[in-house]
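Sanity check

After download, print the first record. It should look like this:
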Amino acid sequence: MIAGDLGSRRLGIDRGRGGRPGSQGRHHRPLRRVESRLLLAAATVFGAWLTLRASPWLLWPDAGAALLLLGLAASFSVKGSVVDIGLAESVARGVSAALHGMAGAAFVARPVARTRWRLAAVAPVGRGLLIAIPIAALIAGLLASADPIFASFLRINLDFSQVLLDLVYVVAGALAAAGLLRLAAAAPIDRVDGPVWRLGTIEALVVLVGLDTVFAAFAIAQAIAASGTGAATLSAAGVTYADYARSGFFQLLWVAGITLVVLVVFSRITGFASRSGRLAFIVLAEVGIALTLLVVAVASTRLSLYESAYGFTMLRLYSHIFAGWIAVVFVLLAADMAGLWHQRRWFVGATALTALGLLLAMNLANPEAIVVGLNTDRAMASHKLDAQYLGELSNDAAASLLASQSRLEPALAGNVHDVACVGSRTYTPSPAAFNWADAAAAQARRTGC
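Expected structure tokens:
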């Protein structure tokens, strides 16, 4: 019973009132902590990029980052810190946010229900509309068939699929806002230090030895391939060295991601009975990190070779970015395991900060413009360019694509002109729907097409 109450409190749930989240009288609490305000300001920054960029490769991560930061601002509004949060507490806060998000609609509906007596006064109007609408529709239809000018008044040019999509977004946003309100008004989550049970030291060391052995064998394979002594093996497999060097990068990145999860989880759930056991774990983990960084380097090199042969795409660019980011995260993990700043649980927060910083840098750099520039540089040397793919990019790439014509040979420049000038040259949205990238693309087409 005590354990159940403690678990509920850790998730911000009060069982004293029927198990309803956020029922400890903390409603309408403002975000008084400086850290929550900073998180809220950061969410605003990423939200602003939704009006500056048009690429779905940025819009969805920006929306996710803004929502994540809003959730963190609500979760840390009373206690806790992003620079002192462990893996278990991250999971607990995530579960709490999900529970409050699902119950957000009911949280907002309760004060609305208190005004239901006012709805009784509106009921006659609703009944009148139910009677009036069919009559008005019948008369309007007859008048429209008799008078074409009157009929033109009834022609409403609406894209119902877009209206439906907008409605879905509005409802989803409203539910998310309701969940954030409930999360901010909920009981604060206590510090969570992880499960009471621990994995044995021997079991964890066996796992790490197995992991390091596999990585060491892979390192030997790379040395054999680099020396040329593995040519017979490649020939027997029907693979040329060029194909071998340009393949497998996605699998290698998956290996790095899975290894990161394994090392982080095992470092948190392993119980050490002696100092020597802890030291052995740290040494094996650091070796595993070093070998994984080798895997990341091999993946990045193979991807570069593939891009030299076949060109650059957004997926390949993002794979490069992911490889660089996960290498940084492994370095952070190595520092954490070595005992750097051991008074605080900083790894999770630092990892999130590097991801958000990288996303902000990508917004500033415009990845689609980078892909256009890299393909243009390659086309100047290889005289090959996939203009059709570049034309499928969003308006973030339009200005760079039109500007690239001056650097290309006439035939390739003509292909670029054909695909870059397909879009609209006018842009007159309502202020609420304005997007800077769309406006810049229209301006570029007016001057470059």
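If your output differs, re-run the checksum step. Summary of this record's structure: The first helix runs from residue 2 to 10.
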